[in-house]
Amino acid sequence: MIKVHPRVRSFVAARLSPEGELGLHVTIGAILMMIAAAVFGNLAAEVVSHDDITELDAFLADWFHGHKNSIWTDPMLFITHTHDVLGVSIMASALGLYFYLKKARYWLICLVLAVPGGQLLNVLLKYIFQRARPSFDEPLLTLSTYSFPSGHTLGATVFYGVLAAYVVCTVPRWNVRILVVLFACLMVALVALSRVYLGAHYLSDVLGAMVEGCGWLAVCITACSTLRRRRSARISE
Prior knowledge:
Blueprint: H1 6-15, H2 24-48, H3 52-66, H4 73-82, H5 85-101, H6 105-129, H7 151-170, H8 174-197, H9 203-236
Helix pairs in contact: 2-9, 4-8, 5-6, 5-7, 6-7, 6-9, 7-8, 7-9, 8-9
């Protein structure tokens, strides 16, 4: 039998413990961050090198543009316009006010880090990759900013992600948790679909934003959970 050094055993046990400042929540957060970074890096590499996914991007962009005058155009425009920077900021402000009134200050900190912080990160990534948006003769939307990753999709991912995480952590009823998580996933998917449907982004743009948002959420939620646990540990001493 392989003998494990007591310090190694103690370290692993601490990382897998549900309690403690740097326990299981940090381990899960770190794993999610690494997975998100790996997936995003692979996706970005395919975009930069014009790999197979860019062919799918072009095909879907042309297909949706060919069907731009369907009955879904107005709903897609509504979804995309209500999830621009202003729309997400208004919804985040309302949720932040709720957290403030409920005295959920760590969730408020998480929201501030996730939404404005995520949007700033997304702008930085846009300027790093500088990918041009889809181009059509008669576009439904005309935008001058870069395409990868999608800002609308990132905003929806982090906002609805914080909302879903809060409900999962605070509401005891599983049916409510599941419904809210499904609602959050549906809204992010609809925002992503609206961006591709309207010709504002490629498929890889919205997928990259989803992965970016999940990784950033892992950072924010893990950091705030660690801060809360550390504060609780100091108070109990």
